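User: Before I run my own analysis I want an independent prediction to cross-check against. Here's the chain; please return only the structure tokens and, at the end, one sentence I can use as a sanity check.
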Amino acid sequence: MGGRGPDRVAPRRVGDVGEPSVRPGLPEGLRVRERAPAGGWERYLGPVVVFVHGGLDRGGSFGRTALRLPDLALVTYDRRGYRSSRDLGAAPLPVHVEDVVAIAAAYADPLPDGAGRGRRPVVAVGHSVGGTLVLWAGVTAPDHFAALAAYEPSMPWLGFHPSPPGAGGAWGGPGPGADPADEAERFFRRMVGDAAWERLGDQERAARQADGPALLADLRGIRLPAPFDVTALAVPTVVASGGPASRPHHRETVAWLAEHVPAIESVEIADAGHGAHLSHPDAFAALVRRAVARV
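Assistant: Structure tokens:
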């Protein structure tokens, strides 16, 4: 999603990345797409990059970044409850973490003959709550990942997120009576802007509102208390934030992670807001390559 500042524009429609995957071991019903390496899997020795999208988003939003990574094998997917995986229904965050781990396992092929022993490395890259899922998966199943990257992961339990009105100082997420469609519209307006919502066509508005139940599950899943101990992360990880255009709580979260988790290094995309994968694909691709370099 977009943030405040120079990238606060309506995200243009981005095409899906690659072709539908039928790889064994993928979570049943999850719509996963892969872009095979140019020379085919048989000769490819590099890592597989798995993208994990955030709230009210979809795998295709990484399309601009994918264009900047022509030499890498890429995997995208719509998380449960979103877009093409909407028929699976909204799911709690631990189920999403299980999906990330299962996808990583499905792509960790044995390396081709003559390339040495071992399996193909997997690098998971997440945006917003997708970044939270990537870090969580790295803590849960560190042997499945060679490196990780997360852009402005959503971790309100660290105490940096502003409290909504009436929350009494605690970030509790949407209340039990929240309407999914209304919450989707409010979230979009808050993160991307009112003008961007008004520019959407009826079909796109309806699609975003249909993702409302999944969004509510995401927002409620990151509420206090902490669902996992990020300081236990041992997988080499790059965590990034935007610059002044981004919101203070995102930048403070990334600074805290870099200070308290030895496996993490932090970088900044200086002129980006929260939607850097859409507004600054060159810099976001550089973030991916920085993570790949840590393999």
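Sanity check: Residues 93-107 form the longest helix (15 residues).
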